[in-house]
Amino acid sequence: MPLLRRRPRIQLYTPRVVVAGQPFVARVVLHCREEVPLEFVDVELRGALDRFRERENGTEERVVEFLRQRARVREAGPLPIGEHSWSVTFRLPAGAPVSYSGGSYRISYTYHVHASVPWWPDARATFVAHVESAPAETASPPATSVFASGPTQGESPDFELSLGTTVVGPGEPLRGAIALADPQRHAYREATLALVALESADGFLGRTSHRHEVCRWTLPADRLRETEPLAFTLQLPEGVVAGFDHGGVALAWYLHAKVDVPWSRDPEVWIPLTVVGRREPALQGEQAPPAVGTRRVEALWRDVAARSGLAWEPGAMHGAVAGAALRISREHVDGRGAVAVARLTTPDLGLGLALTGAPPKLVGRDMSQTTCLNQHVSELLRRCPPRAADDRGLVFEVDEPGRDAAALRRFVEDVKAVAAALAAAREVMPAPTAMAAAVPAWERAAGQLGGRLQRASMAVTAAVDGVAIAVRTDWDARGRPRRTLFEARPGVPIDRRHHLVWRAEDGSPPATELPLAPLWPGAGEIVVDAGSVRVAVDGPLADPLEQLDRITALTVVGKHIEGRRGHYR
């Protein structure tokens, strides 16, 4: 035997990429140029976490091994001249962290081959193992969320951003869109998008985290200030790895978007990303991002309008609900930003309706009518309080739900419920106490004229010989019947030469081409304008049929206007 032994030369054959949770075979080869006595040959797979921290005098590193898998492939005995090989199967735990080098730690895997030679230095060799996550087998699902840097209300700088998907792989494109809030008001500068790794590791005092920016993209200011949302495409680096949380270490990915605004808070948003393993090109299709900004708002409102049975036009939804006209629009209020305003226009309720108190309550001129009304609507108005109210309708206002279609839908349905409740209350509304005794006479008059009595205001509307006629009680601010109004509304506009305003204190009636002579006696006021002829008689009427001659004369005036040649036909 020679005095100096020659140690065997070691080679190792392994897959180029190791996938956690999947078995793989490593083959070790020893080349002996002479017979070598051996005690054993071991192959070991190790995983190490190398944590580093900046100190005043440099970087401090601390290495902790979190994985060891060892296999003995050769027991004691001489190894003759030539090439000798053994195979061994390893399997990393499912969920084991992948190979990664970041800002606060490094995760590495190595193979260690140890051939023990008695009474002589052992033969040792170290090889690098590259661990990746399993390849993704499906395409990325489309994203449905819109991310915002702040609430939709208010006037601070704000932006919305959407991504085609939040599930991406190494080297894949990522489409997105960004929209700035009120670019005419704020001097937005450039926007930066950064891919950030959130690195976490358990320590003596608990888990600590570190943000590591991997790459950055910039969107120019001149394109951002355009009124339309800005679409963009980001190309992820080839070296990004799938996130993990295993063995006291974790890695998560975020897209950090930030817009520079001088002399103000820079709005920003953090979007969690799911990074998966490499995919086949056929699975790397680009997903279009959801709409942002004005386009998103319009799409949301259009969808809510359709679901609520309303028509949509740019900026508003509208429709008829329980005999009332409903229009809901998106408006801007200084100091609050965008608000949703619902205007519910009803037929004349005739209640002398107003808002009072806090929270606001509906009140009318008559206590019994107010009680009846609130029995129908008080619970609804507690949930959806109005901003304004009168006999012609109510106005509701809420901070614009912005990104919450369900909240906008609830607001619409609440207002529709109020409209239905008002219609139900109108059907059972009692007459004002001051004129309750006159209801039978007014109902007979309505029947004789072929019309309808609105008890709430004590008014009869009818069509007499094709002319729209109304007899209404006019009430003062204290809820007392002040006078009675007789009105004719011809089917055509009244020529300006016939317009007049006459009051009893003016003396003799003015000259006119209209046959108004039967109307002057007993009248306190006569008004002719473009739409109607109105005659006021002081005091309430116990029975409208007592003024049947006046109603007939008013009908003649209406027919006269509609029958005139030239302008009226």
Automatic annotation (TrEMBL):
TM segment ranges: none
Name of a matching Pfam family: Arrestin_N
InterPro entries in the cross-refs: Arrestin-like_C, Arrestin-like_N, Ig_E-set
Domain of life: Bacteria
Domain Arrestin-like N-terminal span(s) in chain numbering: 59-126
Coiled-coil features, chain-numbered ranges: none
Protein name: Arrestin-like N-terminal domain-containing protein
Native source organism of the sequence: Nannocystis exedens
Phylogenetic lineage: Bacteria, Pseudomonadati, Myxococcota, Polyangia, Nannocystales
